[in-house]
Amino acid sequence: MNWHYIAQTDLRELSRSKLIWLATAIVAGLCGLGTAVPALVTDGSGLSYTLGVETLFITLGTVVPFVALGLGYRVIAGARESGTMRFLLGLPNRRLDVVLGMALSRVAATIGVTGIGGVVGLLVLVGLYDSTSLGPPLLVVVGLVTVGVVYAVVGVAISASVDSSTGAVGGAFGAYVVLFFFWERIPQAVYWLVNGSFPSGDTRPGWSAFLTRLNPGTAIGDLTVARFEWMRNAEYVSVRQTSDLIEGDVPFYLSEPAGVVVVLIWIVAPIIVGYWSFRNR
Asked: Among the four 130, 232, 275, 276, which has the fewest Cβ within 10 Å?
């Protein structure tokens, strides 16, 4: 046995779960409905199309963290409680095989569930809107699915680091709150500690923008959603590139390659931390 066998086995069991198919149907329905609403309540194909992409972004972006963390947070902690982990470790499996295999299976499931929701939203765009260019909304969907990959890996890492499902729930909730809500407050708090006041105006020091960029959602947004001018100045969505927060030339740590590095670190580092914690338990 090894990591890819564990991943295949876990993914096969997931595919037999009614809950995963229910979650897929709910995500697909929400994305389809959210994308369709602007076409049904507004006039003007151009405006409706823009709003359709915005509502798809808002809907899928809202459900992605819940789906990803929900798939990942209990996978190892639950196996401990049920006794399945003793069986897995009794076979010729290393703890690294368990963490890596579970992470890959939950990442694949997250891509499947959220990807299907995104595809349904794109199909609604094609079906209901006249002037539809699929390039930008497709990149938006890819970006949000990538955010789901990060959250799924974080969920598995949390599950590997705690002893019970209760602890996993608390850890997953804390990760969601920090990454989704509180992260933007961190650069402001550090700015206050350094300067004795909160930042004013539209610009920030380079280091403050870098702290903002370290959020995986922000880094992925810089590479996808924020590339489009109409998404940076949309009616309901305002996604600015992090480099817009500073004046002058863009430093290397706010460049697109640096953003890719941030995303890769967020995918790899939680697996390493989760394995290290799991190995010492």
From this structure: 130
Task: Compute the distance between CA of residue 205 and CA of residue 208 in angstroms, rounded to an integer.
Answer: 5
Say if CB 126 and CB 38 are below 8 A apart.
Answer: no
pLDDT recorded at residue 229? 65
How far is it, in rounded angstroms, from Cα 161 to Cα 153? 12
Q: Please tell me the distance from the alpha carbon of residue 38 to that of residue 129, in angstroms, as a whole number.
A: 10
Cα separation, 120 vs 271, whole angstroms: 31
Phi, psi angles (nearest 5°) of residue 85: -65, -35
Kindly report, residue by residue over 229-274, the tens digit of the pLDDT.
Answer: 666 555 555 567 787 778 777 888 888 899 999 999 999 999 999 9
CA distance linking residue 237 with residue 144, whole number of Å: 14
- Per-residue model confidence (pLDDT) at position 246: 81
